[in-house]
Description:
By secondary structure, the protein is mainly α. It has one domain: Rhomboid-like (Rhomboid-like fold, Up-down Bundle). The chain has helices at residues 30-40, 44-47, 52-71, 80-85, 113-134, 136-160, 172-188, 193-216, 222-238, 248-268, and strands at residues 18-19, 22-23. Helix 6 (136-160) crosses helix 7 (172-188). The chain starts with 17 loop residues before the first strand and ends in a 5-residue tail after the last helix.
Amino acid sequence: MPQSQENTPTQSNRPDSAVGGVPRRTVIGDDDLKRMLSQNKPSFLQRNAGCMVTLVLIALNVAVYAVEVLLSGMRVDVSTQVLVEMGAMYAPLVRSAADLYRFVTPMFLHMDLMHLAFNMVALYSVGEVLERTLGKGWFVALYFVGGITGNAVSYAADVFLGSGASVSAGASTSVFGLFVAVALLGVLHRGNRSVFAQYSKGMLGVIAVNVAYTLLVPGISVSGHLGGALGGAAAMLMLPARSLRVPVVVRVVVAVAWAGALGWLLVSRGLIG
């Protein structure tokens, strides 16, 4: 005759079993918790997808500075000779079309570690909003227009105003252009102008501090910084970024004026035919 077996409840030793009708929670170990958090954490590329061009520009500046330090005998204060040899702006050496690279290369050269750090922090602080707003291509154009204009004005000051031949370098020509570009977003952006207007007001204070620093601290290229600011304003008015509301006629006039002024400078000095 079959025997029946009485089922009696038994208590499990597993941590997630019920005790007294109240279920226990499984305790997550430190390693498991770290693994779970890392799985939900976005990668570096995901976090910085909106400012990849800014990061590339910063990486280029840092890489070039590393070469400067190497050529200076591992000194963080880069020698003037190394700066000139690597393409710093030095008016007496700009003699022909073959020397026009000196209007571009100075924006990637720096004189010491603090010079580099200051400019890279400034670049990162404004780079993302401009890169997202203008688009990566027009952001690069803005960076170069500001830098080239700043170096051109620095060169013109040396040869026309008799300010003396000086060696100038630094991304600050481009950075000042970016500062002015951010300040103009509150006026020129197609949408969210109230938001950008508030952002721009805050940027005016940053610009004022940098202008004061430029004017008061000896050894700073005033013409280069002011030229970079002028280039930033010109770029915002002539680059056809869809996010900016600038009449076509204004874009054309500013572009012709900018190219004409640069062309006149080069022709008047016999740098191009």
